[in-house]
């Protein structure tokens, strides 16, 4: 049982301590700063990532608020356009009613004028027909009465007297 690995001698322990000390010295001098620097870089990267995520979260909130504001503005514009369209259509309908009323009044007035014109024309034609009929009747009566020469002379004399009096 004299195995040097199980029961090391004093010389092995010293050389192991020297080798361990050199290893610790090398690691402290060149290895440990690199490891610390890598850990610090990693910590900074994680910190920056968290800050970027927080900024992105804030930007998303702002964008969402902006989107909601844009949506409200779009709805307000839509409502305004619809209100304006309603007013315009009401105005067009009112204008059409007014024009239709004026046109109907003009047509009625034109019809009245035509009726009056036709009425006057009919009365004039009736008077002309009555005058022609009266002349024909008077002519027939005069022919009948004036067939005798003596009656004709008497009638002419009476008519001449009446003509002088008027």
Relative helix content:
over 70%
Characterize the quaternary organization of these chains.
Answer: single chain
β-strand number: 0
The chain-level structural class is: mainly alpha
Low-confidence stretches: none
> What would you report as the Rg, rounded to the nearest angstrom?
66 Å
By DSSP (H or I, 4+ residues per run), the number of helices equals 2
Mean pLDDT: 88
Can you walk through the features of this model?
- With 166 residues, this protein is mainly alpha-helical.
- It has a domain of 116 residues.
- It has two helices and no strands.
- The longest helix is centred in the middle third of the chain and has 136 residues.
- The model has no long low-confidence stretch (mean pLDDT 88).
Quickly list its features.
single chain, mainly alpha, 166 residues, rod-shaped
